[in-house]
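4.2 Preliminary Data

To establish feasibility before requesting continued support, the project team ran the inverse folding procedure on a target of 402 residues. The structure was first converted into the token representation described in Section 3, and no sequence information of any kind was made available to the design step. The complete token record follows.
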């Protein structure tokens, strides 16, 4: 019915002069950032029509005239630009910052974003939005949502890409600490499969004791139908990445962090249903507290960060041919210089020329010396993008433009 109404309105509008239809445009109706205002943008807009501020469906990007409601005025702007080519929106970097981990200062905990060149840093969510050690983050750009994990309040949460419309999806306790049950006991990283029906979110959960109680879970994007996929053999899983086309999920396991259990450190993969778990890399491959992981499926490579040895590394998707890309010290601890001092999460932009890897670095003291870096996929041309205001950055996600 909604689409029928919109179609009727469109016919009427398209018979009017263009200038009368456009009005005073203040937003960009290319909602999917494709470079053209097309039917996909129309469908996205239809799903938000009628939403007002404080409504969970409301997103500022659809409120083109800025009046606080996604209404007829916004539709006039959309119709006026329909079929036109528009400048593509600049890509964005999103990241979580877990702060000092102390009760004060509360403003340390935040989710931020910036342009791909590090400019225009925006703080989207803070402790005042009930953030407490935000960790993993991932994006559904077409759906206009970001998803993240909260390691202190044991929650899977989401919000609009501008930080509005925050909602809890899964939790295991109230803010006061009372147990509520549920699957998220120590959620770390999170990833989305937007091709499945229904779409799914996957996350790794480190459990409570770092002794074989880690798990890998998945659920629908609204948090419904949670299910355990892998429930044995995981010590301290930290990061997860999906090869949806290949039907595989990859994850890092940082183990106990102790020197006497070298077999704990590993990178593994399994089918998306949790079957056929394979160990690809271990301590014998010079893993030491592996953390973030990202995939270049077309290139046949996986990339990961190594906290213990301060390295950015890569290997084939089957774990063969591991190689160092960036490091700051030898295995013995001697400083070699370089950008990776405490690398955490990593993400890839395979659309740029040349392709780039981005990563967050927590620095050495958790006192405003965190950074966001990028480099070519072979580790060349590293550059610091954001160098101030970061206390303990943990997760990173990229909003790519087509």
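Position-by-position output of the design step:
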């Amino acid at each position: 019915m909604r689409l029928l109404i919109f179609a009727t309105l469109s016919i009427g509008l398209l018979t009017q002069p263009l200038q009368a239809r456009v009005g005073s445009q203040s937003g960009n109706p290319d909602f999917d950032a494709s470079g053209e205002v097309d039917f996909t943008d129309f469908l996205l807009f239809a799903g938000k029509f009628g939403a007002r501020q404080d409504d969970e469906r409301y997103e500022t990007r659809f409120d083109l005239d800025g009046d606080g409601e996604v209404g007829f005025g916004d539709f006039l702007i959309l119709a006026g630009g329909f079929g036109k080519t528009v400048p593509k929106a600049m890509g964005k970097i999103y990241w979580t910052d877990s702060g000092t981990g102390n009760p004060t200062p509360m403003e340390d905990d935040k989710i931020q974003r910036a342009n791909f060149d590090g400019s225009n840093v925006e703080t989207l969510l803070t402790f005042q939005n009930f953030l407490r050690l935000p960790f993993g983050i991932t994006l559904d750009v077409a759906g206009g949502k970001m998803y993240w994990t909260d390691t202190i309040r044991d929650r899977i949460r989401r919000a609009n890409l501008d930080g509005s419309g925050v909602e809890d999806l899964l939790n295991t306790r109230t803010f006061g600490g009372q147990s509520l049950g549920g699957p998220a006991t120590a959620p770390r990283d999170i990833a989305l499969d937007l091709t499945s029906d229904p779409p799914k979110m996957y996350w790794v959960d480190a459990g409570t004791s770092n002794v074989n109680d880690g798990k890998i879970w998945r659920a629908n994007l609204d948090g419904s139908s949670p299910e355990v996929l892998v429930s044995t053999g995981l010590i301290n899983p930290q990061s997860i990445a999906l090869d949806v086309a290949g039907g595989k999920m990859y994850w890092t396991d940082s183990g106990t962090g102790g020197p006497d259990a070298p077999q704990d450190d590993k990178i593994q993969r399994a089918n998306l249903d949790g079957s056929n778990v394979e160990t690809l890399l271990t301590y014998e491959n010079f893993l030491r507290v592996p953390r973030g992981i990202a995939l270049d499926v077309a290139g046949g490579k996986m990339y990961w960060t190594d906290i213990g040895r301060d390295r950015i590394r890569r290997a084939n998707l089957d774990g063969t041919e591991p190689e160092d890309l960036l490091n700051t010290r030898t295995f013995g601890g001697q400083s070699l210089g370089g950008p990776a001092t405490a690398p955490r999460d990593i993400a890839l932009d395979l659309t740029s020329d040349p392709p780039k890897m981005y990563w967050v670095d927590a620095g050495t003291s958790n006192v405003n010396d965190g950074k966001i870096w990028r480099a070519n996929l072979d580790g060349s041309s590293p550059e610091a993008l954001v160098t101030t205001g970061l206390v303990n950055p943990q997760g990173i996600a990229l909003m790519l433009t087509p």
